[in-house]
Design brief:
heterotrimer, A alpha/beta (481), B alpha/beta (445), C alpha+beta (124), A: 481 residues, alpha/beta, Aspartate Aminotransferase, domain 2, seven-stranded mixed sheet, three-stranded antiparallel sheet, globular, C: 124 residues, alpha+beta, OB fold (Dihydrolipoamide Acetyltransferase, E2P)
Chain lengths: 481, 445, 124
Amino acid sequence: MRSEYKLIFERSHAGRKGYDLPKLDVPELDSLIPSDMQRTEDLKLPEIAEIDLVRHYTNLSRRNFGVDNGFYPLGSCTMKYNPKINEEMPALFSDLHPLLDGDMAQGALELMLDMDKALCEITGMDKFTLQPAAGAHGEYTGLMIIKAYHEMRQDTARNVIIVPDAAHGTNPASAVMAGFKTREIKSNPDGGVDLDALRAAVGPDVAGLMLTNPSTLGLFETNIKEIANIVHEAGGLLYYDGANLNAIMGIARPGDMGFDVVHLNLHKTFSTPHGGGGPGSGPVGVKKELIPYLPYPVVMSHHNGPAVLDYDRPLSIGKVKNFFGNFGVIVKAYAYILSLGGKGLREASENAVLNANYVFHHLKGIYGVPHDRICMHECVIEPGELLSLGVHTTDIAKALIDRGYHPMTIYFPLIVHEAMMIEPTESESRETLDEFIAAMRDIARVAKENPEALHEAPVNTPVGRPDEVMAARKPIVKYED
Amino acid sequence: MKSYVPNTESERLEMLNVIGLSSMDELFSDIPDALKLDRDLNIGDGMSEAELRRVFLEYAKKNSSLPIFRGAGAYRHYIPSVIPHLLSRSEFYTAYTPYQPEMSQGMLQSIFEYQTLMCRLTGLDVSNASVYDGATAAAEATLMMRDAKRKAKILLSLGLAPDVRATIKTYAHAAKIEIVEIPLDNTGRTDIEALRENANGFAGAIIANPNFYGNLEDMTLLTNTVHELGGLMTSYVNPISIGLIKRPGDYGADIAVGDAQPLGMPLMFGGPYCGFMCATQKLIRNLPGRIAGQTCDKDGNRVFVLTLQAREQHIRREKASSNICSNQMLCAIMASMYLSVMGPSGMREVANQNLQKAHYLAEGLSQIKGIKLRYENTPFFNEFVIDLDKDVIAVNAALKAKGYVGGLRLNYYGGNDNGMLICATEMNTREEIDGLLAALEEVMR
Amino acid sequence: MTPNDRYYTKDHEWILVEGNRAKIGISDHAQDALGDIVYVELPDMDATYDAGESFAVVESVKAVSQIYTAVGGRVVEINEALNDQPELINSDCYNQFIAVFEFENLNTNELLTAEQYEAFVSEG
């Protein structure tokens, strides 16, 4: 079972070739590049045949686990099924150059405009930019918009973003990258925003509050209207981290809750594949008064005329990346939205929440629970009494791997000791959930009978637990031959 | 309506009953009634696959499929069939970040190979697992140089693409970094005297090669100059050009960034692409984003993990140097596959075809009355600027009527530059080039 | 045992004063809480810091800790051995300083003795 796997460089044979190109059909000239700019030695790249590449990556893929392999309840990441039809749609746009004149790319621009409208309807916002490439990039963009808004009003003392202690680590990192200081506020015992702490934290230096709702504990922030009032009355804006939107599509909208800026993760909520860590897409939606600050160019249509790219945006924060965003990802997400329609999106959210509560209900008696109430699309549990047996969250996660599951998110949120955050998504059937619950029950049993066995996990994988200390102390980050 | 929820109505009801509820609505009792949407979302009733295909085909039909002579940061190259086929392995594309190394060795080894390939391509010591695109890679390099030198001033060559400069400026504004733009001289290359004059107190410079106008810069001289002035050198490169020209590491650059799109990624109306970032060993801790490293498991097997994670946002939170928490993994794998299948000879051959075709096109254009190469004596790679006697917008419109997408008008961002940035790659056949030349001959008459 | 020849802070640094110089390192409690230390970001020689400022960073695989100086002054020595062997802090934290500061004034009001520090740690 245990095995190393050769690197592509270890498969190289001098002179072997895996490509072909048409013969050069124009006269070949010498000395087009001055000799002191030319590279004389060959690049040290692998020399392999096509079949070498095919076997290499096919076998590498077998040493990897995706949603198509099995249950992947990674909390906060919404690892739902990625429908295959969506994967085929971007090919229609493969050869479309981004800098064509608008009349030659009318279909692509219209699609972006239609996606913008759909996202506005789903979130209750007034306009979206599709430019940001990922959630963190969306956060950064949204915060830059908040910064530009205050700067335009000469309200330049506002340099603080309030972040709850339960927030994703990206939130404070994005705030700092956007040039803000962060002010952390403690959560109340329910994991929600402590209103008194918030009242004490707002003031003339506060630019805004970043919040995800449902919270990272998977609980709906019931005081959201009051939170919005407190922040707005103090002159700040409210930022919605869309990581957890999968709980509320068609049920409630951030725009109606008082949020001014929203980012979405198309690769979570709208079912585009995570791709092993990208490409994602992180569109940002804003309320009307913030539209002038969106990154340029903005896709728009005047009086239902042709879709155009507007570069003339004097108040814009500028650009946050090349061109207009991860268009291929946007196409897939739009295909998902059109497939499901309004009712289908609501059905997805309802079942995501149902599945989470079903799992939570069954795990309650076996593991510790920080908050015993109806959760939204994800639930948080703790090792509970297993901790006293020396069994930690890591051990439980690794034991799940042996049983054929991808572990849940572990050690997050930080405000729960040894947290395990489970997000089943709507894609999973009841029997998958039942089998997972049985596996979790079995792990708890083993923990009590033979805790040592869990420290050895995983054993059914191509490699065992890696020595991460060695990797970090003496980093080897490339192959040397 | 299409649904991807497997559970039937009756299974859902049973599950609700198990948890002591009788309706879906009760799951949402925490949400105040006033906030609940009292209607269906107005985004249609859903569609079958067949209907969906028709809708997307309608969008696609409204786009041009004419032969193009346009680059400017996004290039049409041949993508070997093996790449999209292998990329469709859903063990890769339906996975998330390899946080559990025991079940993610495929992805982690792929990152490690990508890093190695990019180091060999750029001639530098270390690479990250990629960032969003070339523009954000350049923006992150700006922050890296600031942190490494603890100086908040960066010089940008005006030879960087407008989008790249604009993105850097957005990031620099937030980070309170002073950006000074260095103009080009009349050969279309970074003005080295202007660079010297503005270097006081700078952390480093970012210079594109080939630059946005296609011109090859004297990177050895520029790098030596930047180093003499005490700064770090970031080189923004087109990876295909390295098939022929010196690598950033060969001329001593400290950081190399760029967009890996030409390495096997389709144009796709601008994304997803892939930003690469490589640096000298000294700068490894300043490198943002994910990095895979090699280690062992307890049986001594070679194993790959994400490493140096303490630099990253999920641990450092507000102290992190970047907020990035993903990479463009699938795109990075495309680049890896491209470099692996092309190998040393393929990279040289594809680069040479680009060079030769662009020069054949340039030679033809220079014969047309009313067209002049703007930087006649400057070496270029696969694109270059021409000046026209006629209005560039009118010329492109006339070309479109004759079935060609001409070069990019340089006033697309506004301004009044009547030039055209024109590109040829290995994808433009001689027949196509001759056709464009004939069409332009008529248009310019 | 917590050596009683030096001061401690509530951020778990120790400060050993020798004339107008202060050696600063981290306590046994701190190294234990961090776990296997993989990297120490040392300050530059001659850099100056105010009291209370962060001057170094200690990283383990999955945690990171800022190290603060309780003494304002100039860095006159750094422990370069930590560049190659950051694990020295794990094995011998009280003999492995991170940096030495030269100071003009030292305010010990906020600092803890070994006994006070042990009491502080055991209170949790």
